[in-house]
User: Fold these one by one.
Assistant:
Number 1:
Amino acid sequence: MVRNGALVLLSLLLVLPLAGCWSRKELNDLGIVVGMGLDKKGDGYEVTVQVVNPGQVSTRNGISPVTPPVSTFSERGRTVAEAVRRMTTNLSKKLYLSHLRILVFGEQLARDGIAKPIDFISRDRQFRNDFYLIVAHGSKASDVLKIFSPIDPIPANNLNNKLSNADRLWAAAGQITLDRLMMDLMDIGKSPTLTGIRIVGDIRDGEYSMERIEPAAVLEYYGMAVFRRDRMVGWLDEDGTKALNYLQDRVNQTVATIRCPQEGAVSVNVTDVKTRVRVARSGDEPIVNVKLHIEADVADAECRIDLSKVETLDWIRRQLADKTEDILERGIKQAQREFHSDIFGFGRHVHRQQAALWHRIGDNWEEQFSRLKVRIDPVVQIRRVGTIDRSIEQVMKE
Amino acid sequence: MNSTTRGHCSSDSLSLDLKTNLERIRSDIGNSCDIKCRTFHKKGPGERDYKGAVLHTEGLADVRPLLQAVMSRYPDDYEERCRDADSFVTYLTDSVLSDGCIEEITTYDRLFVLLLSGYSIMLVDGAGKGLGVDTIRLNARPVEEPNVQAVVRGPREGFTEVLSWNTSMLRRKIKNPNLWIESRVMGVQTQTMVAIAYVKGIVSEEVLQEVYARLDRVDIDSVLESNYIEEFIQDKQFTAFPTVFNTERPDVVAAQLLEGRVAILVDGTPFALVVPALFTQFFQSSEDYYQRFDFGTLIRMLRFGAFILAIVTPSFYIAVTTFQPELLPTTLLLNLASQRDGVPFPAFIEALVMEVVFEILREASVRMPKTIGQSISIVGTLVIGEAAVEAGLVTAGMVIVVSITAISNFVMPAFNMGIAARIERFFLMAMSATFGLYGLFLGIILLIVRLSSLRSFGVPYLAPFAPLRYRDQKDSLFRAPFPWLRRRPDSVPAPHRLRTRRVR
């Protein structure tokens, strides 16, 4: 008994070294990639990675950074996978892609189509789903990854946080992760969009400097890149992006300004938006009804109005509803006339709510979308006016 | 009393002749200097002269009151009642000696047992029997506060090395004739007294029989501590988890007895054994019952949490940092990666070295002379804490992991469960160093399988969790208020469930 037990135990123990530890990787052998940029280069791609320099990031006291917290490396390749592997020739560490924070497409690459390079990104098991994909506005992705970020030592991290903040508080950006992009790419009823980023200032001057407080070049999110299938066809501006977020029920918070009757403006904090898309049909034509429930607070009143009066609030409500409707309608028009691309996902709603109709018209949805009738019906409620009622200007006048 | 002999003592009867007897005793005990002999003469009726001797072991007995009584003037009926040596001995027993416990001795065997446990032996020339008089005066450690299992609120007395004091402490807690204390002598050479205590009517007869059966199997030359017996009676030798509970607190033993358990107390050690032992029992401190139930419950959960921390932390750290860094939040990964910059060893070696260093430190702090204790602990904390990190030999994260592990270990009220955690920790570290999180969970599954296969005196070790007993959940992970604890735990077999019911 004991002999047999010992034999079994021994053979089990001998199995351990057989397996070895092949997936073992010590943290100091990893080049942690936080940002990746894809650009078109001749026939293939130029891949740029932003790798963290861990020693310079940590907050160990007494050691001031002597080298930048991140370094970028670029390498060319026929495919993305090849370029990533070729990177080993100029990097001492193994590229570790699981902690990627941001993936930047160069505008040229985006216009040529992102389907090919995205295959590697979604196939490789190291990539997680939680990084954001963005498009460099009028520049190469590699340039975007070479700009220093103030405040946050890791630029890619900075981009990531900036995007989620902008999306949450301003609604003029979109947090597109890999899984969302893939879903949009596969769906005829919804065209993908990716947030754009542009470099403000001189790239050359975007160096890290101890003498200057104001950074010479900053990265700024601006609008969204509109795709038809996998090819980029144009840019949405700030209002267009807001329209996109409203229509997709993805607005968390934003601010809207309303022009006052005389001069000045009132701003409202939009705190909660619920968007409901209903698809009706008349014959073979789908009709989309969008119902918006907007809750807002008054953020400031820079003109002579009295917020203690019900009429004033009614007026604000009407104005905000009109303004929102206007933004949405212009956004939809732009998508229909200029891009011919259903970035709002109306097709998806048609598919879900009028399945029979969708089977008939879905095949040439792009054409159908261009003449789609959309009715917007915003309902606004003002919840709070803040700690004072009449505007300061009004009080001073009296 | 069991008096099997295999040593030098012979089972011969005492001789009639005092001189022969004394010579025999002297030679049997090798003229040991601590055996003192005092001879006396006592004038009897007529011309008779009673020659006698009093023997005692120095330091164990106080012989003076006995001698005073023997040498004093005897009552008036002395002359008529003492016809011969035998009646003289009877007379001494009946009318002269004032000491409590007197036993007649006819064999050398018994004589030595009594002599060496502090009795005074009185031999009279011509009498076929001697007297063993209880003159025990122990120079033992007084009852003190237990220093291993301390409490904030609760009784402050702990067992001592003297068995009779220990049983008396139990008696004081349970004033009930159903508290039965049986004794045995164990250890062929040491002849150690072992007491088996239980509450008749509450204890399950099967468990009791099992205890006796296992004690019968004990075949050992010496019993110097209760562990000598524990290793004979425990269910499985090769497991780090203790299946016999030990405590130095009489209140704990009393509570366990009243739940139907059996206690085994050994002379010469303050640690009593309690069986059957359940896994949860090792996470319960007597203080859970001395503080209000809410606190008791929270503290118990904390202990389970600390136990898991003590077993798993280093292996989890190894697995996550070397195999699955994608599980870490990015900021934490960067932080850890920056710490690891320039650390020469893989995380597993690092953890192993740190854990071993800590074990060394702990062992040293237990063994070293108290006077140099402080300097060692300063060196230890500085060396394995600050300096090792400063020198870049280990990461600060690893120091934190090791300290969390170490501190969690001390949360365990039962020291031997802490030992189990220490041993299994290394096993899990090896598992996660080879297979990552997969290995870690494999190891945890193995541990749980092992735990569920254990039994303590026929009782499933993991009860009341596996097998699940709903009623016992009130007093395992949680501690319900006393009014709810009307029943004894189902996990320990006992004939009567209701606590308040009078037994027999």
Number 2:
Amino acid sequence: MIEVRDLHKAFGNVKAVDGVSFMARDGEITGLLGPNGAGKTTTLRMLYTLMTPDRGQVLVDGIDAAIDPLGVRRRLGVLPDARGLYKRLTARENIDYFARLHGLPEALLADRRDALIKALEMDDIADRRTEGFSQGQRVKTAIARALVHDPRNVILDEPTNGLDVMATRALRQFMGRLKGEGRCVLFSSHIMQEVAALCDRIVVIAHGRVVADESPDALRAQTGENNLEDAFVKIIGSEEGLVA
Amino acid sequence: MNTVPTKVRRSRAFLTVFLKEVTENLRDRRTLISAFLTGPLLGPLLFVMLLNITLNRELDKAERPLPVPVIGAEYAPNLIDALKAGGIVPGAPIADPERAVRKQDADVVLRIASDYGSAWRKGEPVQVELIYDSSQRDANTAVGRVSQLVEGYARQQGALRLVARGLSPTTASPLLVARRDQATPQSRAVLMFAMLPYFFVITIFMGGMYLAIDLTAGERERQSLEPLFANPVPRWKILSGKLAAICAFSTVSLLITLLAFAVVGRFIPAEKVGMELDLGLHFAAYVLLLMLPVVLLLAALQSMVAAFAKSYREAQTYLSLLMLVPIIPSLVLAIMPIKAQAWMYAAPLLGQSLGIMQLLRGDGVTPGQIGLCLSGTLATAVIAVLLTIQLYRSERLAISA
């Protein structure tokens, strides 16, 4: 479970995140939706302790990120906006590297890694160096790397960015599977159809603030719009940056 | 699922990062070539080539038959014979000796006046002209040889004349100068080897350079720092692993270069010009010891400088500039032969330069000097590492633009 309370973060005069609070529960997919530049990535970066909030609190499974950042990171699987694979290592070596940094014993490491390679259907690329991987292959490797320590909470920043239709579908199914396993899945997107199709709960962020935190149905009811896209536009107050 | 690893085996994080960096960089051809080929071998090769050219030139000048154009050779056959005995080959007279010397057609020209014979027979002093250009450094050995032979001949003939008049030759030489040169064969070599310490520093530098760039600017460019920092490992441990990888590469570079110097040292004909050069194992071991803290210092400095760069290329530019800094102590020692004070051994790089020069001179280094050298540089290295860790902690570092 991830809980965010009144997060603030400013870069110079720009308030990137200006009082964001929400909760992502276990066994649910929570979508962080907002136009480009709304503060999604900054919020997530504070969640996985890459950045320190100016104000506010982050709790992961009840652990305060400000007090025990390593404990928080141990409970998170993170796919950052920047996938950043090591191109001179194979996919398998990339996964193993992070597994070892998580302190997994070698036997367990091999089991988990092989299970993920199978689940993400990447047998054919596992022993290739990641240089020259397609976007989809890169995301798969990065996800396997993020999940190899079997975290209860999974954070995915724009996971479908740059993926083709088939890869996107496969990824959505995989996220559903993570939810089925009882994990807390939090992902960000600027694509509203994706969020609508996947999420149990939608947190809409605009200009660094949470402007809605509802289930898709409640969102429709609240705005009086039948169509989710219209509902979003109404909430955000502009059509800027929303890709249908 | 969700057996959150109770306790991360922390000691392994350092080793994991270290091994990964080593593996990854061993697969990069550019890094390999720079660290294990051009970096460590270019120095010794260049060094040997330059030395051989210089030494052979000196040798040639000292022993080779020296052709000297002589004007008026027919007036002084005995003098010419004496010169021939000294290895000089008298050549045909030339029309304009002054011009020939300036144009470097001849190193030196000997001119004997036409009244040489008559003056000699009357016992009057005669003049023999040596025409040369002292700004042509190349010619100096030749000039020295000819004038020495001529003066020797003059002294000999003078002595004979005294004997013929029943006087002791010593009457004409009331004073004798005895030169006692305290230079040892090794110390004569030192002048030529003033730049040697810099070669070692450059090698260490080149060995770790690409890793240092990769560590910050490279990771940032390929955006891998952010996912890396999402792992439950403190940043300073990640940095330590990376620094260790840099140190490993630069130490191997240094070892290769020391080995190369030990091998090529045998091919330098130093002893022929009265110099002694010991670049063997004993020398290598001392250099390695003196240079170990430099390895750490340079690793930290390189990482620090590279961390300021936004891209790989920018980092490369910065580091090329940084590479010029360690040349300063070597230059200072080469131009100004200062007398070493104790504190100088504690100054990073300067201490190493002094120590290596002493080793070359054959004086050896005292344990006290080694201690000063190691502790001074190590302290600086630790400060540099701490500063780099501080820099590595910054929030902005991880975020790719």
Number 3:
Amino acid sequence: MPAIWTDDLTKYYGDVRGIEDLSLSVEEGEVFGFLGPNGAGKTTAIRTLLGFQSPTRGSATVLGADVEDTDALREARTRVGYLPSEPGFDERVTGRRLLEYHGALRGDTRSDELLELFDPPLSRPVGDYSRGNRQMLAIVLAFMHDPDLLIMDEPTSGLDPLKQERFLEFVRTERERGTTFFFSSHVLSEVRKVCDRVGIIREGHLVEVSTIDSLLDRSGKQVRVTLGDSPDEGAFDLPGAHDVTVGGRTEHEGGDHADGVTTVTFTYTGGYEPLLRALLEHDLRDLSIEEAPLEDVFMRFYDADAEETVERVEAEAEDA
Amino acid sequence: MLETARYEVEKRLLGSLALAGGLAAFAAMMALLAPGLLGEVDMAALAEQLPPAFVAAFDLEQMGTMEGFLAIELYQFLWLIGLGAYVAYVAGGAIAGDVETGRIDTLLAAPISRERLLAENYLALLSPILLANAAVFVAVFAATRFVGEPIAAADLVAVHTLSVPYFLCCGAFGTLASVTAPGRLVAEGVAAGGIVGTFLLETIARSSDLGWLGAVAPMRYYDPTAILTASEYDLAGAGILLVAAAVLLAASAAWFREVDIS
């Protein structure tokens, strides 16, 4: 039985689309990254899974409980932890009192242990907490009943880098213990550290589900070559080469003869052999082949137009 | 069991105590001032100079006695309208406020049903209601005996006991506003305004041919002046208030169970 399963899950707010035809399955023990830009529908999906709102269409189960079956879902929530991105608390109550209250609601088997890792100032009113301390309190509340499934909405927002690292390490340890995670984020690099698979959501639709490795494989390598000769236009029109950029020729005045190099960069998704054959037809001075930066890969999936948009807005600003 | 009710009572304890203390102080002051005022001013003569409709609307013909004076100066306004509107206002802000701050998300992520959350929030309203009742009862009881014009203990007990169904009805109305209104401010405004509004409606309706209009006003079923000056206990009215509270609460729960929380 999958920990989370959705079939054509759709949620509209009036005419406004939240998510549409979302079908995915998160297996038990898996860490599933749910990626997308702000406003893509990540939070809508999570709120629907938790039963805060009913789907417009389609269906979903959480730990086997239909999200529209209120009583079954309530029973299932004994084994679910929820970590919101901006947790709301009573401001005047101390952290300790909140911990006690939530412990009474859902059970408390491990808050002592959690407080060693995440240590909000429990004796102070929550209203005095910094953003990071609020998030740490939320982490303790989400994990205190030792849930089997964690649903997390941008859980590291507000944590400083050190605490972020500690949290991700904690998630890895929990994964070893068999806990399932559904982890929404817009920061790929953190997702990459912990997730087995990712789903990418854009404008309410799930556009991709794959393992991190396969995402990287298909997204190709970043190739950068330095050539002694001047390649023709289209010299690197290989199958699998994208975004070829031929830099200007740089002349070096040095020693007895004038020297010059041209830098060419492109993204490459094909095999190594044809690439190397093509390169060796030139006067190859330097070569580097690296994994494409994950952020670039990510951008390709959900916001290919970002650069254009920025340029257009800036151009308009200049005109104005 | 009742973790939420306990938590909400604790959270509001200071406010409830301050409210109870303030009401008790006002009640004691009124009771202590009453003999002097009633001795100097001929209330009956004063009432004759006012328009008859005005006198009838506010039961001013009763002003001449300690019972009547307290009924009008304390119970008929500050108690009935002030505390009634306050209870409705607090109930109105409860769920609506939790939705607005997002606090409700962390609560509903726990294995607790929405109906239970609503019911326990409602139960927590008993703390300001009961504290205010106890404090004002003690203040009036002691102060009227201190100045030597004791109010019949049975009447005083009745005016406080029968106020509980009335306040529960105000709270249930506030709860309905809390789950149906689009935001906290609206919920609080509708809740408190509803109590004041129905009071005005009842006052106007009583003095016109449209007496039936006032039937929706909870004040029709709890009359502190009649209890204190004539020892008339409207038990049927209390029953109606309890039934109304149950109906309002059931409607709130049914609505809250289905509504999208955003």
